[in-house]
Amino acid sequence: MIEGIEAIDLAQVARSVAEGEGFVTRFVRPVALRYQESAIGQPELTRPPLYILVLALAMKFLETSDGTVAAVSAVFFFISLLLLWRLSRRFVPPATSALALLFIAIDPLLLQRSIDGGPGTFSACLGLAFFALLARSPRSSAAALLAGAAAGL
């Protein structure tokens, strides 16, 4: 079950998107009252939309539950581990890469964050994708372009 206020907010906005209501929130934010008088169904103006769209897509094809939100977060955690492994092998010996990956994979705080439903693992995944693509960019202009796209997201 997700507990953080940010994760709950993201999940309810994603649920609204998955159900076809659009980027609306049930949290009252003073900045949104400027655009709509009603406190119900205010437009979401404070959160980046990409993670919300990913959550909404998962909710559309799986189920609308806390478990889906936690699973999406966990998937991005494991993708981040794979990206970190590939990236670190370019710069340090394999034993050092494995040790670093082990420390990250068993860190209790990171494991908790990996299933809390917040955007942290998604952001880490995008950041690692940026650096992995940037490391390949001297050989490929397409990788440099993708690195720029990952940085922009």
Mind explaining what this structure looks like?
The longest helix is centred in the middle third of the chain and has 26 residues, at 66-91. This protein has helices at 5-18, 30-33, 49-61, 66-91, 94-105, 108-113, 120-136, 141-152, and strands at residues 24-25, 42-43. It is built from 8 helices and 2 strands. By secondary structure, the chain is mainly alpha-helical. A two-stranded antiparallel sheet has the order 1-2.
Keywords:
two-stranded antiparallel sheet; 8 helices; mainly alpha; 153 residues; globular
Q: Could you tell me the radius of gyration in angstroms?
A: 18 Å
Uncertain spans, ≥5 residues at pLDDT below 50?
none
The computed structural class is: mainly alpha
The major β-sheet equals: 2 strands, antiparallel
Give the N-terminus to C-terminus distance in angstroms: 27 Å
What is the number of E strands?
2
The proportion of strand residues reads: under 5%
The 3D shape can be described as: globular
Portion in helices? 55-70%
Order of helices and strands: HEHEHHHHHH
Supply the number of helical segments. Answer: 8
What strand line-up does the widest sheet have? 1-2
Mean pLDDT reading: 82
